[in-house]
Please model this.
Amino acid sequence: MTEITDLGVAALRDGVRAGTFSAREVADAFIVKVSKAKALNAFIVETPEHALAAAAAADEALARGEALKPLAGVPIGMKDLFATKGVQTTAASHMLEGFKPVYESTVSQKLWDAGAGMLGKLNLDQFAMGSSNETSYFGNVISPWRRGGGDNAPLAPGGSSGGSSAAISARLVPGATGTDTGGSIRQPAAFTGISGIKPTYGRCSRWGVVAFASSLDQAGPMARDVKDCAILLENMVGFDPKDSTSLNLPVPKWEELLSGDLKGKKIGIPKEYRLDGTPEEILKLWDQGIAWVKDAGAEVVEVSLPHTKYALPTYYIIAPAEASSNLARYDGVRYGLRELADGQNLQEMYAATRAAGFGPEVQRRILIGTYVLSAGFYDAYFTQASKVRTLIAQDFENAFTLCDLLLTPTAPSAAFALGEKSADPLAMYLNDVFTVPASLAGLPAMSVPAGLDSAGLPLGLQIIGKPLDEQGVLGAGLAIEQRAGFTARPEQWW
Amino acid sequence: MSESTYRIQGETGEWEVVIGLEVHAQVTSNAKLFSGAATAFGAEPNSQVSLIDAAMPGMLPTPNQECIRQAVRTGMAIGAVINKWSRFDRKNYFYADLPQGYQISQLFHPLVGEGQIEISLDDKDPEANVKTIGIERIHVEQDAGKLMHDQHPTRSYVDLNRAGVALMEIVSKPDMRSPQEAGAYLSKLRAILRYVGSCDGNMDQGSMRADVNVSVRKPGAEFGTRTETKNVNSVRFVMQTVEIEARRQVEVLEAGGKIVQETRLFDPDKGETRSMRSKEDAHDYRYFPDPDLLPLELDDAFLEECRASLPELPDAKRRRYEQALGLSAYNAATLTADADTARWFEALLAEGARIQKKGEQEVARASANWLLSDLYGALNRLNKDLDTSPVSPEQGAELLALAADGTLSGPLAKQVFEIMLETGDAAGKIVEERGLKQTSDTGAIEAVIAEILAKNPGQLEQYRGGKEALFGFFVGQTMKAMAGKANPAVVNELLKKALAG
Model:
């Protein structure tokens, strides 16, 4: 018999509804899995009581014959960037170690309102800054995947939502929240053989999500397949008057309308994404993806996104600029860490607190951001980057006059070993090369697992859609999923 | 429009002063600019702070439409361009009273563009010497909190009640040339804000304060280097700041020194300005558009509502008082200088016209005179103002009506008014209860006159011998004998007759 923890969101939801198993059994099964997976370091805090309470509510509702909530019986993991009332919320930083908000983020509240339970707060790169989970103050997450052939080097689960990706691929949780600023849902999903979607900017409220770069940050679900992502996403989005950038639109029925039939769809292949130095395996997989979407009925066209090569530098100006300002509130005055030796003044407290509370990558980005906003450099960097961002968005608009969706690789490589890139920030930043453009344009984009490389590690393909066309993105994702038949899973070693 | 002749006499000749004001006016609103927290003055420290004001992780600002509306109405009241598209920027700096580590303000695209204010420099005749002062812009921004240094021997405390309160920053052009002009501009601006209702203008509570930019130059020369004296909190202090700072600058320049562009503080106790920080230590504020907020886009319906809700403004009201109500220029100016005074006057006027069944213009002069001399005199004496006046406009109107219809003579009216101030009773009730009604009963008056004449044969003889100045003596005696209640006109008439024999 299939283990409960092998089931995804839809199967768990349906099984609880049908009485195949109780919500309590589901919660118990995952709680045990979580408790035995310390070696992965995917969780910063475990919250079995939260998951059990939600399960009890589901079982009681079922016993009373009430209609179950959309996610009743489904326990999930919560990226530790979402404020959770009374539960430590750290953004994986020393700065917020021990911080327990008195409020609940809009997205997490929606999930609880939908009946989901929380198994714990998932590790991430500190303040969501990183692509490998190595910047977490609480130690890096270790990917459950290993290269074949006896190479036991611990691998990066991707980042920043690396706790989410590791926990899902290790079957510790059926689904989890992620956040994506420049690829932080899609790249870890690709590295761990799972699915993840970043919706259109403004779909998910940012209220209560620790801010990294406000104009780019967007929450989204991560899960083992496309349908599960659709289900979770439906229960995360929606207008929030507390977020000025929230879109005032009804919540689409993505699950109900999900279809892998791509007849009548045109899928664009951006020629600028064929970068020099991209591994042959990834290019081959991309070609395979093209064949799959054709098989699903789509017409494939080549398109051009001429400003692609400027996307990464643009991102690494805008995101740090916003971050340098967003992180100014961590000053030791009101909450979180305070480093104040006897006799020190306010300036000294700021310096000591921020030096101790922020890790090197966060400090690096604050310095970059402060620099690009400073008098004399503002126009050369920030203004210029803002203009290029507009051009990048226009590239997509132009491309979408010729096609409905874009298909690209998610990342330029499979998962790398921990430590392999952490000494070279630029090499690390290059990992975002395919994901950053859609972030800058605020477009919906998802990664779906499509195959394994020669070392047996997962590779993902990315689908980018027009604004608000999550339905199209999910549909193309499903078409690939159906054809890729991706069933590989990491062998349990933890 | 006139040229100011205000000059500072230095050793090298005359110097002209150039002044611009940046006024911070707290927007009248129940809630802060980007949060729902309350804004009442004088509340317990940190009792009016939301999660947003305290900049908790993940908190986001959402604009309060009422604050935007008030700033737009203010812009309209000074004839300014309203920018239908504006945007909020972050001004980044660290301070313990600034929880976010940045102030949300508007640098690049302010809500309100250029406008102007007319100031009057002649107290007697408001139209005689009028100068137009340009307004550069009005933008909205958040206030900061407050540090309290007197709560602990070695530590400072932070009160965030003000943090996030909406301010309008109203930036003038460098169009003022004397302390008097600066004072007149600030007074006029405050009057307009109070009329519009967008700011209570209470400078002593910090809801309005001015940064004073001053430079000096030889008349007609290029602008000199300016200094900015921060947070000056009364009209008088602004005028003092201009005078003191201009004199200081002249002294520095004449001693061969240079003016440093810097921020200064005004010390009213010592009567001096002091350097706070120079341009070299100036913050690099790293302004950039706030990514948490969408650009502010105003539609025509919103603007129309703002315009329609504007009250009659001080200059228009003053002209109407002169032209339609027939008030003197001085009275019209005094009554309209302040929104509360005008409101009180108009209530008095409306009630007076109603109960006397006359047009407002017919009761306007008497109402104005009574308010400005009798009532103001009494309030001054009692150390009260219109808000706390023991006599309401309705009660005032009743008193004036009793005087107008002859029930009360001038002296009687004054007597009744005094009793009103003491007791708060209505004039009619006082007249009734104390029998203070004026009499025109000729028979009674004639009887008293006959008695007076009989008692004063000597004076009567002198009068009839040609010493007509004694008429006043007989009037006085008659009025006294009648306890002031006789109608003076009737007394005059009957006395003349009786004295003539």
Q: What stands out?
A: The mean pLDDT of chain A is 97. The domain at 4-259 of chain A is CATH 3.90.1300.10 (Amidase signature (AS) enzymes).
